[in-house]
Amino acid sequence: MAKPGGEVRRTIEEDPIAKSFGIELLELGQGYCRARMRVRADMLNFHGVAQAGAIFTLADYAFAGASNSHGTRALALFMDIALRRPAFEGEELIAEASEEHLGERTALYRIDVKNAAGKLVATLQGLAFRTGEPLTKKLERRDR
After folding, report:
1. pLDDT of residue 135
2. Three-class SS of residue 128?
3. Closest among 58, 78, 27 to 121, alpha carbons compared
4. Of 19, 35, 70, 133, which is the most buried if we count CB atoms within 10 A?
């Protein structure tokens, strides 16, 4: 599997929301991303388990890594999540995103989130829009 260039990797690694969640990029390849996050107390819901949004954030980061790994800006069009088992404080979760289809303007990804025992915590599907612009070109705000 070809490795994305250093600038692409740096852009993905420096994601501000990932830093705030403590998400670590483990592996990045063309159409592939693997990332890790430890569930913290501030990520728990009132049941004492990881809130779905925290799990989704980890999965979304892996999806973003995989879909932008080609160096072309890709933006999420759609994602769905199926939660399979709870995750608890202190657990390490691994999200793995794999490209299932790469088209000129859209791409489809499967994202699995597993715990350290390899048990499936959540599975997602993501559809990305490929803008055709370089990943490193900053988006400009457009008032609508």
Report:
1. 87
2. strand
3. 58
4. 35
Of 26, 23, 61, the closest CA to residue 39 belongs to 23
Residues 32 and 34: their CA atoms lie apart, in Å, by 7
Give the β-pairing of 72-83 and 92-102: unpaired
Contact 105, 130 (CB under 8 A): yes
Side chain identity, residue 53: G
List the structure tokens of 57.
């954030």
Alpha-carbon distance 55 to 61, whole Å? 10
What's the DSSP call for residue 144?
Answer: -
Residue 108 in this model has a pLDDT that exceeds 80: yes
Is residue 77 within a helix (H) or strand (E), and if so which, with residue range? strand 72-83
Phi, psi of 25 (to 5 degrees): -75, 120
Burial annotation 73-91 (CB, 10 A radius, 16+ → b, else e):
bbeeeebebebeeebeeeb
Contact 50, 22 (CB under 8 A): no
pTM above 0.90, yes or no: yes
In the beta sheet, which residues pair with residue 127? 78, 108
